């Protein structure tokens, strides 16, 4: 719940001359994610009827670049979601206040091809920074030893470590500060704090509570995209494709054609991750990317 959520959509799908079916599909996609974010993040803010802050990001501004088009899209989104079941989530959508044209937009139209040279990208980053500064987690006071621990653990080049490894580093940094809590409880509380900040990944689920991911992007994105991707066509072939087609032809076709993953394939797809494979699979379940 302690985060800022970005929901991306392709502006080409919702402009006035877009195919009606494509537009409806794009709006349904946004509706799903607005409600999903509210469902998972509103608990700590329920008294205010709010959820975590949300930025709607419209991509392909290089193709949909007119100010009038952006205003029309903004009006469409307001009419669709400001009066729907996503009302509560909609109240948490951040606005692009200084948008060109003089009228605020409910989304940030960005041109991915030029990155931070785009004023809307810079505006979105400023909003994220401003929202983060107001976060209870950011303002929370913590022992100086926790910060010393974080500086120390980030020197570890491993992608993933055990909680026992973390405790050893924490002990060197002077933990536990609280003798009442003891080392184990304080370390887990500290890890939860850094997890909320997005500095590392730690979950209290029984299947994941003994593991800390120090570099989530480096570990998760390459591993997950070996499975969740377009597998068909020569442009999407992986180094492992030939081996999978030869050794697991039926299981491979199930993944490619039906999105059904036989865990035998992971011995090939995730060979480089070794002992981390079990953690990766549990994280896929945790994030709803797979169903056991």
Question: Keywords, please?
Answer:
292 residues, mainly alpha, three-stranded parallel beta sheet, two-stranded antiparallel ribbon, 7% strand
Summarize the model shown:
46% of the residues lie in helices and 7% in strands.
Question: What shape does the CA trace take?
Answer: globular
Mean pLDDT: 90
Number of strands: 5
Kindly provide the radius of gyration, computed on alpha-carbon positions and rounded to a whole number of angstroms: 22 Å
Strand order of the largest sheet: 1-2-3
Low-confidence stretches: none
How many helices? The count is 13
Instruction: State which percent range the strand residues make up.
Output: 5-15%
Give the N-terminus to C-terminus distance in angstroms. 25 Å
Major sheet: 3 strands, parallel
- Reading the helices and strands in chain order gives EHEHHEHHHEHHEHHHHH
Structural class: mainly alpha
């Amino acid at each position: 719940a302690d985060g800022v959520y970005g929901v991306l959509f392709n502006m080409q799908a919702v402009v006035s001359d877009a195919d009606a079916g494509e537009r409806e599909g794009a709006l349904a996609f946004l509706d799903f994610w607005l409600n999903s974010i509210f469902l998972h993040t509103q608990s700590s803010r329920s008294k205010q009827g709010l959820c975590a802050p949300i930025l709607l990001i419209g991509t392909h501004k290089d193709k949909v670049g007119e100010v009038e088009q952006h205003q029309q899209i903004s009006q469409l989104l307001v009419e669709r979601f400001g009066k729907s079941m996503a009302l509560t989530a909609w109240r948490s959508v951040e606005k692009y206040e200084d948008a060109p044209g003089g009228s605020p937009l409910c989304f940030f139209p960005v041109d991915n091809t030029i990155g931070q040279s785009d004023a809307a990208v810079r505006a979105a980053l400023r909003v994220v920074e401003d929202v983060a500064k107001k976060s209870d987690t950011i303002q929370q006071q913590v022992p100086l030893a926790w910060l010393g621990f974080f500086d120390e653990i980030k020197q570890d080049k491993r992608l993933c470590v055990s909680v026992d490894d973390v405790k050893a580093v924490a002990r060197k940094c002077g933990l536990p500060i609280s003798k009442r809590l003891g080392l184990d409880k304080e370390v887990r509380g500290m890890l939860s704090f850094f997890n909320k900040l997005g500095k590392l990944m730690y979950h209290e689920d029984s299947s994941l509570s003994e593991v800390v991911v120090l570099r989530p992007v480096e570990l998760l994105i390459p591993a997950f995209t070996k499975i969740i991707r377009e597998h068909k066509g020569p442009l999407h072939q992986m180094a492992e494709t030939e081996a999978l087609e030869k050794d697991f032809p039926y299981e491979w076709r199930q993944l490619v054609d039906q999105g059904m993953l036989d865990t035998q394939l992971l011995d090939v797809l995730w060979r480089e991750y070794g002992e981390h494979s079990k953690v990766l699979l549990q994280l896929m379940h945790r994030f709803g990317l797979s169903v056991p």
